[in-house]
Design a protein that fits this description.
One of its GO terms (cellular component) is Cul4-RING E3 ubiquitin ligase complex. A hairpin with a 4-residue loop joins strand 12 and strand 13. The protein has a domain of 201 residues. Helices cover 8% and strands 46% of the residues. By secondary structure, it is mainly β. A four-stranded antiparallel beta sheet has the order 1-36-35-34, with no helix packed on it. The longest helix has 16 residues. The radius of gyration is 27 Å and the shape is globular.
Length: 518
């Protein structure tokens, strides 16, 4: 006789849904989700404070990646996870020829069998000024892998980015421009950019291609690769999208592996070794099939939402600050799809798709944050409309902006101008971010009176926008300086850039407020 079937749900969709909600105690992610839920509750308690535990200053840029603070051009690494930040490694000062231009943090993928034990630990991919691509241990700074990029023709690689995060990496050169004397002599330069593409962990070479003006046109200003799409931007505001995977398959002349001996165009060498570097083995000989194109002011173009939509600004200066939300399928404008805050401010408002993958849209102005959502138009399933999910408003209760005042003697004085929406003396939003592990929306609002500026970091419920916690920054905040704020679980980090390349870093950690502390 057949054995009786095990009790429980048998519908695959139901099983997956229950697993996502943490119904199975033996699921590896259940304990982690519960812990993060507890951390969020503790963090938002009134008795929980954030204390400034460490401050440092530097003459070189300061960077932050996943609990690690990098200083002195990545020669010094400090862990911010401990109760007090501690140095993980300190390397001797590097020569100018070894200066690091860009870096990406590489983390081990889950469930993958990797060739080397060092691959299971976090590492840092760095790009040097001399076109070396290095993989360093994130904890010791030890060089794990070393690849030379530039070949026979001089290529100045400067930028690192992800095509697919933690899977496919792209290294890009600066735009090739001939010296004025060469242009006057009539010398032509057709190659604008080079892109080198790598699979990571294990690090392997996919291919190198050139962006040629003979194929893509003379007015190309920039190029990027993201999520399998080649994005080409033009000086006239045009943005064109191409299928990057199809380009690799159609135009790759010959695949190469790192460390492989090769004979390429009369050159004999080893792939990724000095002085030969990497071969340009992807030659685009014809214009690839166009997926999509749009015209937008300053090439501002974003795709997101469900169903797919894109955001652009009409390509005229008078439309700066006006955003159109359109369907990617047929380019139709969504109902209420024109978003305009009509701000009168020095700094423009900005808009982007919510990074929580909910398909919502965040629109940030000087004193107002709108979280918008896409929904079907009633009785019309073929059209979407933009609706307001919730708003966050700056605290300007004490702000008085009278255009007419009366002096003590009774004289009436009329102002000839109104305050700007982002006037420093009024509370103004400067930074909006999302903490995915705690599902919190964070905002930084600043008020500056005279030389003294005060800022606070607020945590809002990502679902409804309710204010859960407010953390004041102890240091003064000058709105004319450049600022970065990182909120990472129980850590808040503020990096400030002052004039003359002076950098400061302020680290705050969560502490429980006790009578002894008081």
């Amino acid at each position: 006789r057949a054995a009786p079937r095990a009790p429980g749900p048998h519908n695959v969709c139901r099983v997956l849904a229950r697993r996502a909600h943490g119904f199975y105690a033996r699921d590896a992610g259940v304990a982690h989700r519960k812990n993060l839920g507890l951390l969020r509750k503790i963090m938002c308690q009134e008795s929980t404070k954030f204390k400034n535990v460490w401050t440092t200053h530097s003459a070189s840029p300061i960077a932050y990646e996943r609990g690690r603070i990098y200083m002195d051009n990545y020669q010094c690494c400090i862990s911010s996870i401990a109760q007090a930040p501690r140095i993980l490694y300190q390397k001797s000062k590097c020569a100018k020829s070894e200066k690091i231009e860009d870096a990406l943090l590489l983390e081990c993928p889950l469930g993958e069998m990797l060739p080397s034990p060092s691959d299971y630990k976090a590492s840092l991919i760095v790009l040097t000024v001399q076109n070396w691509l290095l993989r360093l241990s994130a904890d010791s700074g030890e060089v794990l892998e070393k690849i030379y990029l530039a070949g026979s023709c001089c290529k100045s690689f400067r930028y690192l980015s992800w095509d697919t995060p933690q899977e496919v990496m792209v290294v890009k050169t600066i735009q090739n421009k001939l010296p004025a004397a060469a242009r006057q002599a009539g010398i032509q330069q057709s190659v604008l950019f080079y892109l080198a593409v790598f699979q990571v962990l294990p690090l392997s070479f996919i291919g190198m291609l050139e962006i040629n003006k003979k194929i893509f046109g003379n007015s190309v200003t920039d190029v990027a690769v993201s999520n399998g799409i080649l994005i080409v931007m033009y000086s006239v505001g045009l943005v064109r999208l191409y299928n990057f995977k199809a380009i690799l398959e159609q135009f790759m002349e010959q695949p190469f592996d790192l460390g492989q001996e090769f004979n390429w165009n009369g050159q004999v060498g080893v792939v990724g070794k000095y002085p030969f570097g990497l071969p340009c083995n992807i030659k685009i000989t014809d214009t690839p099939p166009l997926l999509f194109e749009a015209s937008s002011l300053e090439n501002a173009f974003q795709i997101g939402g469900y169903p797919w939509h894109y955001i652009i600004t009409p390509n005229k200066k008078k439309h700066k600050g006006v955003f159109h939300i359109c369907s990617l399928k047929d380019n139709t404008l969504a109902k209420n799809g024109i978003q305009d805050m009509k701000c009168c401010s020095l700094e423009p408002d900005w808009i982007y798709f919510h990074p929580d993958m909910s398909g919502r849209i965040i629109h940030v102005g000087p004193n107002l944050i709108k979280v918008l959502k896409l929904k079907e138009v009633k009785n019309r399933t073929d059209q979407m409309e933009i609706a307001e999910d919730f708003t966050i408003v700056a605290n300007r209760e004490n702000c008085v902006n009278n255009t007419v005042t009366v002096t003590a003697s009774g004289r009436v004085v009329k102002k000839r101008f109104n305050l700007l929406d982002d006037d420093p003396e009024q509370e103004t939003f400067k930074i909006v971010d999302y903490e995915d592990e705690l599902d919190l929306l964070s905002t930084v609002a600043v008020t500056q009176i005279g030389a003294d500026g005060r800022a606070h970091l607020d945590f809002h419920c990502n679902e409804h926008g309710i204010l859960l916690k407010s953390i004041p920054f102890r240091e003064s905040w000058d709105v004319t300086y450049s600022h970065e704020v990182y909120f990472d679980k129980d850590l808040v980090l503020h990096i400030e850039q002052k004039p003359n390349r002076r950098f400061s870093c302020y680290v705050y950690q969560m502490v429980c407020d006790t009578a002894k502390d008081d």
